[in-house]
Amino acid sequence: MTTQAIGRSKHWWLWPDFNEEKDARDAAKMGVTACGLIAAVTGVTFYYRYMQDGEISQLLGGMVVLILYSIFGFGILKMSRIAVTLAMLLFIAEKGYTYLVEHKPLGIAILLAWYLVQSARAIYWFREEMGKIKEENNI
Questions:
Q1: Widest distance between CA atoms in the chain
Q2: For the segment 104-115, what is each residue's pLDDT rounded down to a tens digit?
């Protein structure tokens, strides 16, 4: 098995295993990356639509989505279950609408969704482990 310098398998990002806090934090950063990419692409797309159509609602909508994903990314970085859950729900709703109603291809959205799923696994594992540690210290 090929390993990287930090002792993880080469394909660790496909299905990370969590043995310690650093593993969970590194996997959660995949969600931060996904939120950053989603925010950037959404902002550029809505700005482009605003420049084409001249409707201010396009620009405002894009800014709202950009700000939301930026907040979600920060929440994921802070290991927030609420942030990762809301990011996943918004992303699934948005891409579901794009695919089912507008009949547009998903493209890289599958990879971004995978990153969000892995970060959710990491955050929920992290919070569960921190809960166990708190219980042990209180007893």
A1: 63
A2: 888 899 999 999
DSSP string covering 50-115, please? Answer: HHHH--HHHHHHHHHHHHHHHHHHHHHHTT-HHHHHHHHHHHHHHHHHHHHTS----TTHHHHHHH
Two structure tokens written together for 4? 């990287």
Cα-based distances in Å from 76 to 10, 43, 65, 80: 24, 20, 16, 5
What does DSSP assign to residue 20? S
**SS3 of residue 9 by DSSP:** strand
Q: What is the mean pLDDT of the chain?
A: 87
How much is the pTM?
A: 0.83
Bridge partners of 1, per DSSP, are: none
Reported as a single tens digit per residue, the pLDDT across 62-83 is: 899 999 999 999 999 999 999 9
CA–CA distance, 103 with 80 (Å, rounded to integer): 33
